[in-house]
Amino acid sequence: MPIVCAANPKGGAGKSTTILTLASTIADQGGDVTIIDADPNKPITDWRTGTSKASISVYADVSESNIGTLIKRASNESQFVFIDLEGTASRMTSRAIMRADLTIIPLGGSALEAKQAARAVALVHESGEDAGRDLPFVLSFNRTSPPPFTTKIEREIAHQMRANGMPLLSSHLHQRQAFNAMFMEKLSLFELDAAKISNLQGAIDNAVAYTEEVLAALRKITREAA
């Protein structure tokens, strides 16, 4: 079963939002999902204390010593496994990256965020050296303005990354009220009340397009590994 983690040594890069958005979308489409919450702040563990009926299980007691066991258990129990990693480079983070089918590196549209994302790319490469193989990853913009309000710096960062051969998702997770509301209301994206959330349908469309691109990346990785 696919194992996807979100990694970036910068706190607040959007890892938890990325993971919960993907999990919510796949669960809404009938998938069975487990999230391993390795973020010390436990945002997804807190989210799971709410009333959401989404088919999303959460493992909360995660450590360097047991993360490998948890990943194996989750992959036996669920169709999809997502790992929300801590915002630092650590052995636990490396162990998760080495076991993942895909590492998503979220970043915002600024030069500072791009620099931090480069550190995450280096961590993936270092983990790959330890594993003795190339580890798949993609960079992913989040908290950006939806078109046509994309900024010049975002376009320049994307152009530079692609010019350097960095894999970059075309879909962004934009700055939308609904993505924050998932954590506030402790509901999945598809359980939120459209009467209370500005342009909820826009956020849903954004999440579905983003998830489809991530799934396409996973299918490509599977084909290349065959």
UniProtKB/TrEMBL annotation:
Transmembrane segments: none
InterPro entries: DNA_Partitioning_ATPase (IPR050678), P-loop_NTPase (IPR027417), VirC1 (IPR009744)
Gene3D superfamilies membership: P-loop containing nucleotide triphosphate hydrolases
PANTHER family: COBQ_COBB_MIND_PARA NUCLEOTIDE BINDING DOMAIN-CONTAINING PROTEIN, P-LOOP CONTAINING NUCLEOSIDE TRIPHOSPHATE HYDROLASE
Name listed for the protein in its UniProt record: ATPase
The organism's taxonomic lineage, starting at the top: Bacteria, Pseudomonadati, Pseudomonadota, Alphaproteobacteria, Hyphomicrobiales
